[in-house]
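#lab-general

N.A. 3:47 PM
ok so I finally got the sequence cleaned up, no stray characters, all 242 residues accounted for. can someone with queue access submit it? mine expired

B.Y. 3:52 PM
send it over

N.A. 3:53 PM
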Amino acid sequence: MEIIPAILPKNYEDLKNKISLVRGFSPFVQIDICDGVFVKSTTWPFFAKATEGEPFLENDLEQHFRRILNEEEGLPFWEDIEFELDLMVHDAVENFDIYTKLGPKRIIFHIEAEEIQRDLEEFKNFLEGIDSYTRDVLEIGIALNQDTEVETIFPLVNSVDFVQVMGIAKIGFQGEDFNEKCLEQIKTLRDKFSDLVISVDGGVNLETAPALKSAGASRLVVGSAIFNTDDIINAIEDFKQI
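B.Y. 4:20 PM
back already:
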């Protein structure tokens, strides 16, 4: 399985520091972007709750993010590592072009976001309408919370590159308790779509990982079980041995 360290960045320096800790040992990191609207937590690049409908306000965004948008710099260590953006924001579709300017290899939408829930068919059309050049260099994933029926995403599977199942009920936070409900979601997806790449985010540790693998997970996104250890590199290696 692919092991992806997950960063819930308090600020730019926290992001840079955590990337540096896994640089050279993991080809990917996931950056959790939370706007304080879709989920209660707020991470880099947001400073405070965004104004609904107008999330990218000057006072809401950190200076490095603005510099990246202006192509004056890139994400920390972008030459050495690939980025997966988990967009726990209410306007990921509306501001898709802005998030792509961060230079990610993968972007994850959450199906529970209001703008997606309003019209799933319109969201599917959006996915299928992304230009071919972008799709050649960018993988698209769709995340599924535990309270959402897994069948909801069936019509979208052929329009995305992977599905991310959430292993915790309270998303946007790390260190939350693992909920076994996700195992059934994974099994259902694996039975229905045998070749689907299934990623799991939340509650992943060395105790839960074997069950996730047995259920059919392809990737494990790991936050606190990597970054809260005394030996981060050894922790990554332990996960790879599962």
